[in-house]
Input
Amino acid sequence: MLETRESKSRPNVGIVRVKTTGFNQDGVTVIEYTRTIMVYRRGHVPRTARDRAARGDLG
Output
């Protein structure tokens, strides 16, 4: 993880920047990239239909 920050436009998510490195069977780096993803903040993950069904709340 390279960086984390709050989203300016969406208060329920954060922005995470990560670096990924891939190695071949000899341990030589063959790919390397950084990416930025949005993740829900703790306690702000929306309930899914599966969650509602498991609780018996089908409405």
The two ends are 39 Å apart (CA to CA).
